[in-house]
Amino acid sequence: MPFKTPVPILLTRICRAVLACAGACCLGGIMATSASADVATRAVYLEAQDGTRLAIADLLIEDGAYDLSLRDAPFSDHFLSMRPFKCLAGAEKHWCYVPYPYENARNISTEFTDLEYDLLFLWKGAGEYGINMWNGVYYKLEAEGDRLVGVMHEMDMDILSAPPEDGDLRPVRAADLEPAEPDSHWLPRLVIE
Fold first, then answer.
1. Phi, psi of 150 (to 5 degrees)
2. Nearest-CA neighbor of 44 among 145, 118, 105?
3. What confidence category does residue 85 fall into, taking pLDDT thresholds of 50, 70 and 90?
4. Is the pLDDT confidence value at 154 over 70?
């Protein structure tokens, strides 16, 4: 018998190895710098429909682990629905940052979900005094050459109102995300470069 492992399982393992290798190549371009291949600093931008960008954060990546630091300048402090928020003020909508409150490995060595969780926002109308949790903003990240691009999805943030079960680092499911209409939102893209 030439194979001890059944062929479907062997093919699954080969596919996983190929995908892991391809992911590592994409991430290598994102993380590489002239100073060191293991440490990189990137800027995080939110992009309006007309291409205007707001630099909102800095991302330090070291050996796949990352640290995200919000910049103070573009944000203003707001007290909404009895909670403090840091918001970006637009003419018609405000984008309010929502720090992810649960356990997060903060690692992007194989995929970007941890970083997506650290880049959550809520939008509200510029004249509204409160927030609605169903106006959640989730940027689904993908590698494009040596940068990451996030496409806006809408979500009901109420799914994060209760802590996930111990060890569940992925409480947001694909079914919880709805692709947004870019023309109906102020900041439909996120770019990391």
1. -105, 130
2. 118
3. very high
4. yes
pLDDT band at 110 (very low <50, low <70, confident <90, very high): very high
Tell me phi and psi for residue 19, to 5 degrees: -65, -40
10 pLDDT more than 80: no
Residues, the chain, total?
Answer: 193
In 48-135, beta strands by DSSP E: 53-62, 65-70, 76-80, 83-89, 93-98, 120-125
User: Distances from the Cα of 47 to the Cαs of 3, 15, 50, 149, 162, in angstroms?
Assistant: 52, 35, 8, 10, 31
* Tokens found for residue 145: 């050459």
CA 187 to chain centre: 14
Residue closest to 85 by CA, chosen among 93, 95, 57, 69? 95
> What is the C-alpha separation between 190 and 185, in angstroms, rounded?
13
Q: Which two tokens stand for residue 10?
A: 């062997």
* Residue 81 DSSP class: T
Q: Is the pTM of this model over 0.90?
A: no
Residue 133 neighbours by CB under 8 Å, 6+ apart: 122, 156, 157, 158, 161
How far is it, in rounded angstroms, from Cα 147 to Cα 29?
8
- What are the backbone dihedrals phi and psi of residue 39, each rounded to the nearest 5 degrees, phi first? -130, 130
Q: In terms of Cα–Cα distance, which of 134, 164, 137 is closest to 153? A: 137
